[in-house]
Amino acid sequence: MSILADVARIAGVSKSTASRALSGRGYVGEDTRRRVEAAAAELGYVVSSTAASLVTGRTRNVAVVIPYINRWYFAEVLEGIEAALIRAGYDLTLYRLSTDRDLRRRVFDYFLVRKRVDAVISVTIDLSPHEVQMLQALGKPLVGIGGRIDGIPSLSIDDVETARLATEHLISLGHQRILHIGGDQDEQMDFRVHSQRYSGFRRAVTDAGITIDDDFREADFSIEGGFTVGLAVLGDPRTRPTAIFAGCDEIAIGVMVAARQLGLSVPGELSVIGVDGHPLAAMFGLTTLVQEPGGQGVRAVDLLLSQLEHADAPPPDEHVLLPTALTVRTSTAAQRTAPRSP
Amino acid sequence: MSILADVARIAGVSKSTASRALSGRGYVGEDTRRRVEAAAAELGYVVSSTAASLVTGRTRNVAVVIPYINRWYFAEVLEGIEAALIRAGYDLTLYRLSTDRDLRRRVFDYFLVRKRVDAVISVTIDLSPHEVQMLQALGKPLVGIGGRIDGIPSLSIDDVETARLATEHLISLGHQRILHIGGDQDEQMDFRVHSQRYSGFRRAVTDAGITIDDDFREADFSIEGGFTVGLAVLGDPRTRPTAIFAGCDEIAIGVMVAARQLGLSVPGELSVIGVDGHPLAAMFGLTTLVQEPGGQGVRAVDLLLSQLEHADAPPPDEHVLLPTALTVRTSTAAQRTAPRSP
DNA sequence: TTCGCCGGTGAAACCGGTCTCACGTGGCAT
DNA sequence: ATGCCACGTGAGACCGGTTTCACCGGCGAA
After folding, report:
1. B220 with B184: CB under 8 angstroms?
2. Is B82's CB within 8 Å of A59's CB?
3. Dihedral sign, CA of B14, B16, B19, B23?
4. How far apart are the first and last CA of chain B?
5. Span A160-215, pLDDT tens digits
6. Contact A120, A92 (CB under 8 A)
7. Is the minimum CB–CB distance between A208 and chain B shorter than 8 Å?
């Protein structure tokens, strides 16, 4: 392993000049630069990023904290972030935060703090004010994806509005007995995504003057989750809803599979709408509100880099609300004019 | 930001002693250690890992190169690796290698080389001898998951054997017109996974003395991919196979959905078997050969860490073949005694 | 009593870069 | 002629730790 001093010696210049030539900072004569580059190539020299980081204080490394990897939305966000970072010459250090409080503390107290990363992207993690403050005290730019965090710039869809829109779509089709299948309202890890989607749903329902006594079921955010709850909920023809607003497309698809298994036709006897724009949605003909998680990742990186490169600029602490697009497919249709039970 | 010297001053000791006290290396008096720890806590001190890495040459950071994030197998492997690494106090730097040759070169020539990582885990990436050599020349331990790479320890299921087993299961049920839906045989990125599965399939077929004229279709490794090919292949009752061995569970599930859409009963008119143990397999009643990608990730990390911690030990260059377990569900059944066309 | 060793500590070298500063040039405006 | 500035280069401080080495007190063995 050759070091800068070797390169400098071979090229017949000083360390300083070699450094300038290779990093491209400061004045270097054209021929000198070429000599240094030749020497570096000959020796197979590459900078030690640790050494460089030590003196500059910058690591060109961004931490991503994320609660899941194996779920469509999160994997998609992660891919977007990764692509954008590598394009910009940054490394991505991945921390998956499970519900384990202890692990979470360790990541914040130990891992994020050791001057290893320049910035942090938090995907759908509801950071506590203390955690935010800690990172800010360290001077690390921070951006959130998937929900609003006070005091830091973040990026997400408008969950309340999206849920309302989805529900209104069902209502406009004449549905009254609508069920929302969503996530655990009290989940600590995620933002208030689940509760926000529920509240958007509620708002649409009450605005329409409808009363539903049993309007919510909790499900795991996965196809299996939707399937399980779907079976449980669709079994009884007397209490069965005529439409379901699922908290995400995976749940919606699970519900559709369950319906099919029970011999219920969709949308004939049951309308289903989801949120996400999952690639499977098209295949299943699922009506959904499309968001673009990959693009959110890319935009988050842009936000971060602009903070990183011009530290002078005031940190924009606004929350960007991204639009979702209602994509109507064949899983939703007008409620039959004659409801089954009079 | 406090530095070690501050801690030392507050504790009334030298930098050396402070360092020893905090890192736990070398002799330190019991009360001295406590004083130093108190001082560190008071100042909110944390080591600069860059500074530490510079002198020790070790970063406690492992690079993972992986071709996809948003696919079940890969996400699962990644989760396993992440969990194992963080438990061991290591960071994980993620590089997603797309088919972009240029990006791939950049990752190898620029990112992996800068002394940022201690080791590399390559997930289903068919490293060229040159790439392997480069990493080895850098003294970076390397382990592969998902396929064999010459000269480095790796970890995978036996793709040939697994495919053969799956196919034999179908044959033993009396099927003769069997189709394999798998991945692109020439894909450069992945190992020879696709071609190995095909060859295991072929071996079982020829061993059974069966001849099939149209025995392979290529599909994207996803539910949609399986669905599309499934529709194309199941449409014509005259040429339709009676059984399908899918290259992975996603494809198998896609095929099952396609079959259902065409009104074909599974397993009545079509048997389907997959490979993976995808969580959806249980829900769809899919017979499959179960592997455990998460566990593979964990084991890979173990292998790596043992190389890292005892550099003296000779690098084990053996390839570990993991077993897969045939899990029979309801998607496979005996071929009807009277085939439709005489 | 003396020697050797062990636990405990500090001074200073060192890891491999970047960056400031000082010190040249030469060209152009004053 | 003088001053100033743009360009080009080298010496050396510095980033924040770890580690070597030297040193010291005390205690058991010779």
Report:
1. no
2. no
3. negative
4. 83
5. 999 999 999 999 999 999 999 998 877 655 668 899 999 999 999 999 999 998 99
6. no
7. no
